[in-house]
Design goal:
Helices cover 4% and strands 55% of the residues. The protein has one helix at 110-116, and strands spanning 4-19, 22-37, 44-55, 60-64, 79-89, 105-108, 122-124, 132-143, 151-156, 163-174. A hairpin with a 2-residue loop joins strand 1 (4-19) and strand 2 (22-37). The termini are close together.
Length: 175
Amino acid sequence: MALSANVTCNIDANQTKSIGPSDNTASLRVGKTNGFKNAYASTSDNTVYSSSNAIAASGSLSIDLAGSLTDLYGDAAVFSSVYSVLIVNHSGSPIGGQTATTADIAITGNFLTTAFGASSSWPLKATSGKYSKLLFDEPAGISITASTADTITITNSSATAIAYVDVIIVGAVAS
């Protein structure tokens, strides 16, 4: 299946300092875009998994990358390699009539251990009117090994509030 995607990360910052009677502004603009257009091994098809989730208070969501996920067309998406993962906690700035919460989440799982080389846990805080995100992007891909390097777990740290979380994964599935 053909896939074209752009994974972009940008930071635009302006810092202003008063110096005497005038202001001086320093700017920083850093950006990186990785474009995908069937640039990977011909033995694989590239696909996208996307889900919007409401995780109950103190609950968790386990994403099995070599399990029963489906792509945008509802076809099986059993990943053999993952290129990009975007996880957004938008609990503080919900969409579609959801009630804003301050539910923080923690991201763990053996996929993170494989991707980052050590046991890892990534907290994503949610504050009112804001959202937080984790973007992992590896153009060479991280191999998925069923039952040892294939899970991402998202845990709602709040005992009272629902966490609203979006997950998008770009990767290759065996053809």
